[in-house]
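User: Predict the complex.
Assistant: Input components as received:
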Amino acid sequence: MTDSFFASPGSKAEIEEGERLSPKFDADGLVTAVTVDADDGTVLMVAHMDARALALTIETGIAHYYSRSRGKLWKKGEESGHFQTLVELRVDCDQDAVVLRVRMPALGPGVPGAACHTGHRSCFFRSVPLGTAPSPELKLAVNDEGRLFDPAKVYGAPKKTDTPRF
Amino acid sequence: MTDSFFASPGSKAEIEEGERLSPKFDADGLVTAVTVDADDGTVLMVAHMDARALALTIETGIAHYYSRSRGKLWKKGEESGHFQTLVELRVDCDQDAVVLRVRMPALGPGVPGAACHTGHRSCFFRSVPLGTAPSPELKLAVNDEGRLFDPAKVYGAPKKTDTPRF
């Protein structure tokens, strides 16, 4: 069924630089999805899409993913209300990854939307110190202003999160 | 050997919000690496890192990946000269993906560095039209200003590219 959504892969040059969308799904039927804030470019999260999630995202303009941990379609925000509306969808040269430029609903006056199930705006809220070989003692630094929402209030019991990893 | 680079995974809470780096490598021993321009946030490329590539990136501050197609360590720029110098390395909540904020050498006066083996600045130089269900006839649109370098001049014969997919 999903085959009918996309073009059959052509030559390497056609895949890499042509005008047809022929996604290269991996052995699990997935492409990598990188989701960024459409306005300031912050990388919000990395997830995956199967053919159906990709097709629904294109058709509706709302981000859909495939949850590997739950083994099913995952419409981001279906439990939390934290939907992602696409401004642009990009595909890379070998068509095994996409970038979603999105907007998310603000959580309050002056409080931006948040993509991470931990309550942080971005899943990438920790930085790795550079310049020396890593060791188990290495300490990550938090690079944001902390949680924007309380996961317990948004998701209830931990099992109910709509953002399993992933 | 590489085990000694990183902390052993702790509890889910420690992995997701703690201060230890304990990357969750997949069945192939890889994490996903998203590389963005440190200054304007443009997503330049998506690739992968094994433990050694991640450790070298942290130690040297220069981006190293693992080339899946060549099955070996890949120091980006080793053939092209298009190295990537890290400004920041971020890790996501479940520690199976990293974001590299990098700077690349300008290709000339007013010409930014380019990350894609096709000669484009970003691998994500095509956009997917939104709003209707995808079909094989869907046409991608080019969203950048074209090639910034000639791959044949930089890499020579096609086989020599340092950016296999991937």
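The longest strand of chain B covers residues 31-37.
Let me know if you want any component modeled separately.
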